[in-house]
Amino acid sequence: MELINKAIKTLATLLILILYNTAPAQELLGVILGNYRGTSGLMINPAGMTTNKVYLDINLATANVFIRNNFAYLPKEDFIIWDALKKGYEFPTYGPYNKNVIYYQNQNHKNAAISAKVLGPSAMLQVGDHAFGITTGVRYLLTGTRIPWDIAELSYNGLDYDPLHNIEFNGNNFNMNTSVWMEVGLSYAYNVHKSFDQQLTVGITIKKLWGYGGGYLDATNANYLVENDSTIDIINLNAHAGFSLPVDYNNNDFTGETASFTGSGFSMDVGAVFIKKKNVNLNEWRGKKLCAQTYEEYIYRIGVSILDIGRVKYDENAQLHDYNDVSKYWPSVDTLGFSNINEMMAGFSNEFYGNPSTSLVSNTIKVGLPTALSVQADFYLKDNVYIGGFWIHPLRINMSSLRRPAQLAVVPRFETKYFELSLPISLYEYKYPRIGIAARIYFVTVGTERLGTYLGMTDMDGLDIYASVKLGINKGSCRSKLSDACSNTNFGNKYSKRRNR
Fold first, then answer.
1. Residue-by-residue DSSP string for 65-98
2. What's the pTM value of the predicted model, to 2 decimals?
């Protein structure tokens, strides 16, 4: 039980630190749905590469960070994000121990998600019915799912919290998972069917993964009672704890003796996009200049994809510990002191099994990626005005897999080549409504899916922000010294530029 408490307390502290020091986003709705999305669209559906207004897109940098939890918060009356920018500002404190956050006093399961992603130098190119992409990126994800409220409160208040003494608690099927990895992906999309005003495209992305570190705590059952501030009665515990970190477990120091990457793996995204075109295109591109490819306006566009199919196998500096049907009446638990990770894990094994090495069952762990099903829709309303729809739902393979939070969204959008504005209205985890905003000025986009946090309208139990800098070349952008119909190299279509606006 103390292992669980220590793990949750560490992660809760990390959450609070990040909450105070970053401006965190989740699905980047302002950059993945528009017709100028280019490489950004690969994050949600590889088949979308042939449905852009650009035929060449070069991503310089796209970044997002997202934080959300339903346990701790800062009241909107006491704090808004801009306060942190004030010189000498001190965060508010609460309670006899001067905590910097308040927790929701209810008995709901607690969930948390912290994610960060950087899409590095990347590019996509469309050549007729084919499109190709290459992406680089770094991702970090930490998720906590179904954490019992009592464990969260004890982690916040400590074992001397009298209201939870001498009560038998029983938590089931809760977990925490985390992983940091680098990825390089190759993408391909092909228009498999084109008939009059319809088009069907399929796409795939294959990624090579390098894991920097990861771990998980998976508890199928934790039945315990806290007698007082120094005694825990662990009635029954079934849990698995695995980790692989680039540190020396004998002193907890980062050293050059451990591998820079402790794991590796592969992943895959697959998707399809169906388009109902506004007009029947009689001027198909015939393989001349790439810039002569034409963009075809649509009535609606619907995409379906499955993302992050794969895992990272950590086999360097990895440990997997099992605690199967163990119990322990543990007095003086408050006097425990461990100087390093190896000492701590050996100590727990000795307490539960009477042997410091019994709990260690493997030197390999596998952390599944946050596999998810996604559906995207986009409808043309009138010139430059669209409304998009977005749904993503986690497809978790096992308890050692990361979990991508669920989200529903409607995204009205105004877009031109040089300016784009979208107003995402989303429902996070099917419970929490949010309103966001994103704006693009030519090649720079900045947005958030939680505008109320920045306006001081909601309590701060999370926040987000994202930004993207990339360059694209539009379809039908060929230049000629002539200004008549011959200025377009594809059948002399003098209207191609007008249709691309």
1. EEEEESSEEB-TTT--GGGGGSTT-----BTTTT
2. 0.85
